[in-house]
Amino acid sequence: MEAFEYSALPARVVFGFGTLPRVTDELDALGRKRAFVLSDPHHADAGATRLMHALGKLGVHLSTDAVMHTPVDVTERVMAKLVAHNADCLISLGGGSTIGLGKALAFRTDLPQIVLPTTYAGSEATPVLGETDGGQKSTIRSMKVLPEVIIYDVELTYGLPPGLSLVSGINAIAHAVEALYAREANPVISNLAEQGIAALGRALPQIMADPANRDARSDALFGAWACGSCLGAVGMSLHHKLCHVLGGTFGLPHAETHTVILPHAAAYNAGAAPAAFDRVARALGAPDAAGALFDLALKNGAPTSLRQIGMSESDLDKAANAALQSAYWNPRPIERNPIRALLDDAYHGRRPS
Ligand code: NAD
User: Where is the Alcohol dehydrogenase iron-type/glycerol dehydrogenase GldA domain positioned along the sequence (predicted)?
Assistant: First the structure.
């Protein structure tokens, strides 16, 4: 075993089918009685209403204001309601956008958070908050935003459409791939990464074939937790930087951008981190990690090119320049010409070889 350092993040996880009503026990354990519930407009009729019903008098308000990119003006508006209701706990039910709003409020109030994730993005397992102000995205790392309790109820994910499940699951896989070659890589997180990639790699095609497959939904949600924990524990590299640039500067959709870029970021780094990519390939049961990641998207009908998700070819130079700004760790040096070539391959959707 090589030398390593590892700091575990505190986490309480309740995982299973039909776990939503456990929220009252968790509130009780936290000693809280006035829960402010967050969701997005799509969940108003489904999970969020059931959650309010389960909470009864413990739920003081349901806000369905969450939107993409956690804009500060929305946070401030919801903050006023939070104060007016004298809430003592935040409960977020939804995907990364809803969880982002909960984290933004927790950052400002230090209230505890219980989170019920409905996608595979993994934000619930990280002490990271991304928010936008006047079109500028900034990232804050603080223990104040790490949720105290995560309740995974597999049944909440049954309604996630197959196409969204696929790109959201590949978004999760990206966290684990980058964790395997992170500067702070360690055996605990690397094992979790490999488990997470394997669970999602197996489950996503099954979900595409049968979105109501309970075992596949359960495996995928477990994989999301494993991969999200990787994102929370170690630093990310080229792949996440590129996706941040493409999402922030060109407004490309989050999970789809991860899906398109991942095979190309993997191909870029493969030679510099062979042991990490052997583990990715083993988890996917394929000889070549980058090719297998591309095939996972292509064979299941996810977008495989930047062109398909709204990027303009004339912006590729600007994207390459942005990817070179501000130094960050990556196993292979970040050089303009190879990065520009990577973006060209991703734009045209060429399978990495
Ligand atoms: P999202 O929360 O915006 O959800 C995408 C869409 O899916 C929404 O329309 C939502 O209503 C719908 N949806 C969610 N769950 C559903 C379900 N079970 N059934 C039907 N529809 C459902 O997107 P996301 O991909 O989950 O999250 C993306 C956001 O999360 C980005 O802003 C990203 O930056 C952030 N994020 C943050 C971190 C972090 O650590 N801070 C980690 C990952 C993602």
Answer: 10-153
Tens of pLDDT, residue by residue over 123-155, are: 999 999 999 998 778 899 999 999 999 999 999
Residues 169, 139 share a domain = no
If you measure from the C-alpha of residue 164 to the centroid of ligand 1, how many angstroms do you get, rounded to a whole number?
9
Taking the complete model, does pTM exceed 0.90, yes or no?
A: yes
Claim to verify: residue 108 and residue 125 sit in the same structural domain: yes
Mutating to test ligand 1, I would choose from 65, 74, 119 the residue with most ligand atoms within 8 A of its C-beta, which is 119
Asked whether residue 131 is domain-assigned, the answer is: yes
- In this structure, what token pair is assigned to residue 17? 């089918």
* Residues 311-324, mean pLDDT to the nearest whole number: 96
Domain that holds residue 63: 12-157
pLDDT digits (tens, 9 = 90+) for 51-103: 999 999 999 999 999 998 899 999 999 999 999 999 999 999 999 999 999 99
ipTM of the complex, rounded to two decimals: 0.98
Burial of 289 (0-12, 13-18, 19+ CB in 10 A): buried
Which residues does residue 152 pair with via DSSP β-bridges, in sequence order? 15
The residue ranges of DSSP E strands in the chain, in sequence order, are: 12-16, 35-38, 59-63, 89-94, 113-117, 128-133, 136-141, 149-153
